[in-house]
Write a structure and sequence with these properties.
Blueprint: H1 2-47, H2 52-55, E1 60-64, E2 68-71, H3 78-86, E3 93-95, H4 96-107, E4 112-117, E5 122-124, H5 127-141, E6 146-151, H6 156-162, E7 167-170, H7 189-194, E8 198-203, H8 212-215, H9 221-246, H10 250-258, H11 260-266, H12 271-277, E9 283-284, H13 287-295, E10 310-312, H14 313-320, E11 332-339, E12 342-343, E13 352-353, H15 354-366, E14 370-379, H16 384-398, E15 404-413, H17 415-418, E16 425-427, E17 433-435, E18 440-445, H18 447-452, H19 477-501, H20 506-512
Parallel strand pairs: 1-4, 1-10, 2-3, 2-5, 4-6, 6-7, 7-9, 11-14, 12-13, 14-15, 15-16, 15-17
Antiparallel strand pairs: 8-18
Family: Belongs to the peptidase S49 family.
GO molecular function: serine-type peptidase activity
Keywords: Hydrolase, Membrane, Protease, Serine protease, Transmembrane, Transmembrane helix
Length: 513
């Protein structure tokens, strides 16, 4: 009996111990979650603090250091981006509008004495975007304020921005890699034949090449012709802008890429010396030497850690945007950004959803305080249905007799042009790739590959069309004819809509389509 009581007491004690331990651990867990939560909100508060005195030095420089791809709209979820920033993950995208706004505001800000460009984190940008930012940097220089570009090395897009500076400082082990523009794609016809996969393709027009990768083993002559024209136009514009900014000859820039090996041999294999001799950079300086030069741009420029006094474009915008006078909400211009692939339904930022983008346009239509709408387009196209859904909402806005302006970014092609065509005015950069008025479709079937594996699809249907979209069966002539006629009708509709919207004849549009 005594042993039983002792055992019960022991079990009770153990139970009390483990319950206490669990409560303690659970309390620690909850406390940890609270710490993380408050820490997260604390970081958010710090990030979005608008205390101007803490953010902008009385005499300093504005640092423009874009990271990732230069875009018109950030993609993905904002909370995920914030958490990625807290974790120290590399920034994948930078808003073009933020950089332009920062440079434009700094131009008349007495506290900003100079502009420092550090583009080495830039991984890609359409030429039209670089031109917009470059134009703003040139305007900044016209005020007499200094612009310095720094970097360990420069790629083609990075160098375009650097070329807008008064001086370019590069590391003695760096290089300027221009390279030009190219477009190389993988072609899968032979691979698909070996895999016994049939891609059924319906397309209208000789220059509608977007489905060629599944129907050919190489680029068609029509696609080569069209691609050579627009790539050549981009490269000519790039050379003209860079040569003009650096005081170079157009032919010299072409030779720098075409005769790179010969020039490098003449420089003893030293890529940095090659760039210096060719006038692409002004001085070769180590990072420490660059810091010393930057310290001399403005007075009292030393931080405790020995860096030059500067403010990033993010900090600068957070500090000054709330100080700006905002337009009357009863007389505002709405801006809707349509960036990415055009897809059906609701899509996250970075893609254009037929429903989600239409909702934004409808909100502007229903807001009587909105006096005009600007649609910023950066898209190579996508779903014809989603494109037309968006176009209908834009036409509904125009029916209220308020102006609609389309601002084209780097690309506004195919579906990107579909959503643009009805605008009262269309503004495009001289290097915007637009048009591509075409339509096509494809549907893969795997009956031959399944047959090789010994798998056979068989059955019955109540109509001639029933089961003809089974990927395990060959598409029948009726379904093939339906697809072909539907695609042809879509093209005819596209041509007709463009002709009506732009006050041109159908034949005129068909010739350039």
């Amino acid at each position: 009996m005594y042993q039983e009581v002792l055992a019960m007491k022991l079990f009770e004690a153990l139970g009390w111990f483990f319950r206490s331990l669990w409560r303690g651990l659970d309390g620690l867990r909850r406390g940890f979650h609270l710490v993380v939560m408050f820490g997260f909100f604390g970081i958010i508060l710090v990030l979005f603090s608008t205390d101007e005195d803490l953010k902008i030095p009385s005499s300093g420089t504005l640092l423009i250091a874009p990271q990732g791809v230069l875009v018109d709209q950030l993609s993905g979820d904002p909370i995920e981006r914030a958490l990625s920033g807290v974790r120290g993950a590399p920034t994948q995208e930078t808003l073009l509008r933020d950089l332009i706004d920062a440079v434009r505001l700094a131009k008349t800000d007495g506290r900003i004495k100079a502009l420092v460009l550090q583009p080495e984190g830039l991984t890609g940008a359409g030429l039209s975007k670089l031109q917009e930012l470059g134009s703003e940097i040139s305007s900044f220089r016209e005020t007499g304020k200094k612009v310095i570009a720094i970097g360990d090395q420069f790629t083609r897009d990075q160098y375009y921005l650097a070329a807008q500076a008064d001086e370019i400082f590069m590391h003695p082990m760096g290089a300027v890699s221009l390279g030009g523009y190219s477009r190389y794609l993988p072609y899968f016809k032979s691979a698909l034949d070996k895999l016994l996969v049939d891609f059924n393709v319906w397309v209208v027009g000789d220059y509608k090449s977007f489905l060629e990768p599944v129907t050919r083993d190489g680029m068609s002559s029509a696609d080569q012709e069209a691609t050579s024209v627009f790539l050549g136009a981009l490269w000519d514009a790039y050379k003209a802008d860079v040569a003009g900014a650096r005081g170079l000859n157009l032919n010299e820039l072409q030779m720098y890429s075409d005769d790179a090996l010969e020039l490098l041999e003449a420089a003893g294999g030293d890529t940095a010396l090659m760039a210096l001799r060719y006038g692409l950079v002004d001085e070769l300086l180590t990072r420490g030497q660059i810091r010393e030069r930057l310290e001399g741009l403005v007075e009292d420029t030393m931080h405790e850690e020995g860096d030059f006094t500067h403010v990033s474009h993010e900090q600068y915008l957070r500090a000054v945007r709330n100080k700006r006078s905002h337009s009357d909400s009863q007389n505002s211009i709405a801006i809707v950004v349509a960036s990415g692939n055009i897809l059906d339904g609701t899509q996250a930022p970075g893609d254009i959803g037929g429903d989600s983008t239409s909702k934004l346009i409808r909100r502007a239509t229903e807001d009587e305080g909105v006096k005009a709408l600007v649609l910023r387009v950066d898209s190579g196209g996508g779903s014809a249905f989603a494109s037309d859904v968006i176009l209908q909402e834009l036409e509904a806005f125009q029916a209220t007799e308020r102006p609609l302006v389309v601002s084209m970014s780097s690309v506004a092609a195919s579906g990107g042009y579909w959503i643009s065509m009805s605008a009262d005015e269309i503004w495009a950069n001289r290097t915007t790739i637009t048009g591509s008025i075409g339509i096509g479709g494809t549907f893969p079937t795997f009956q031959r590959s399944l047959d090789r594996l010994g798998i056979h699809v068989d059955g019955v249907g109540t109509t001639k069309l029933a089961g003809q979209l089974n990927i395990g069966r060959e598409i029948g002539p009726d379904m093939d004819g339906l697809f072909e006629r539907t695609v042809r009708h879509g093209y005819e509709l596209f041509i007709r809509k463009v002709a009506e919207a732009r006050n041109r004849s159908v034949d005129d549009i068909d010739r350039v389509a």
